[in-house]
Amino acid sequence: VTVIVEEEIVEGELFTPNIFSPNGDGSNDVFYVRGAGFSEFRLIIYDRWGEKVFETEDSSTGWDGTFNEKPINPGVFVYYVFVRYILDDTEGTKKGNITLIR
């Protein structure tokens, strides 16, 4: 089943999917946070035991489902996104779960 979502990214909003499948098929292989209008960005992902498995301050860098260059087993992970918006210099956060399937 292929689902195509065509949604315009609005400045000041963050979009995060809730599932991705880093299985090498070229579809949804990387978890990206999408958004616009921020000057600072930080994404942190933890496993179910609270161990940090990924972190980036580059909004164009996504998580490929690996930790220490090895594929992680399927499961549910927790993400935190921190941003500073250009428009009004306010901070924003978003947190949630991402499911990794293979």
Question: Quick gist of this model?
Answer:
The chain is mostly beta strands and 102 residues long. Helix content is 0%, strand content 44%.
Layout of helices and strands:
Layout: E1 14-15, E2 19-20, E3 34-35, E4 38-46, E5 52-56, E6 66-67, E7 70-71, E8 75-85, E9 91-100
Parallel strand pairs: 2-9
Antiparallel strand pairs: 1-3, 4-5, 4-8, 6-7, 8-9
Explain how this protein is built.
With 102 residues, this protein is mainly β. 0% of the residues lie in helices and 44% in strands. It contains no helices and 9 strands. A hairpin with a 2-residue loop joins strand 6 (66-67) and strand 7 (70-71). The model has no long low-confidence stretch (mean pLDDT 90).
Shape: globular
What fraction of the residues are assigned to beta strands by DSSP? 35-45%
Fraction of helical residues: under 10%
Tell how many strands the DSSP assignment holds: 9
How is the largest sheet built, in terms of strand order? 2-9-8-4-5
Q: Distance N terminus to C terminus?
A: 15 Å
The major beta sheet can be summarized as:
5 strands, mixed
Residue runs with pLDDT of under 50 for 5 or more positions: none
Count of discrete alpha- or pi-helical segments spanning 4 or more residues? 0
SSE sequence, one letter per element = EEEEEEEEE
- Mean pLDDT, all residues: 90
Q: Which structural class do you get from the secondary structure elements?
A: mainly beta
Radius of gyration: 14 Å
